[in-house]
What we know:
The chain is an alpha+beta fold. 44% of the residues lie in helices and 27% in strands.
Amino acid sequence: MEFHYTVTTDKTIDEAVSAVEANLKEHKFGVLWQLDLPAKLQEKGVNSYTTPYRILEVCNPVEAARVLNQNELVGYFLPCKITVYESEGKTKIGLPKPTAMIGLLDDNQLKSIAKDIEDVLVDVLEQSK
């Protein structure tokens, strides 16, 4: 099993981020925070990485509370991340699979919840292409 799910789009980075944000809202997820990685690196004096790369921290508060009530260690994996970046002239949108992360814990109920969340986020990525 691959730990990630990634799609390719012809959209620009900004267009892809906007599409992801809009599609997340339809599924009651929101963006808590967005990091423009090259800008942050440059702010810290590192100019060797300039390829567009955004990291979005996303969350559905109801689902977050649900999994945390099941096992507090899930907080190590929260919030979910979605990345939007440029690779070989194309825009990629990806995420680490919640099932891969939760699979580190031995809890079948959590695995089921993670699968439901993963299905929603994969749908968001597909809709955002």
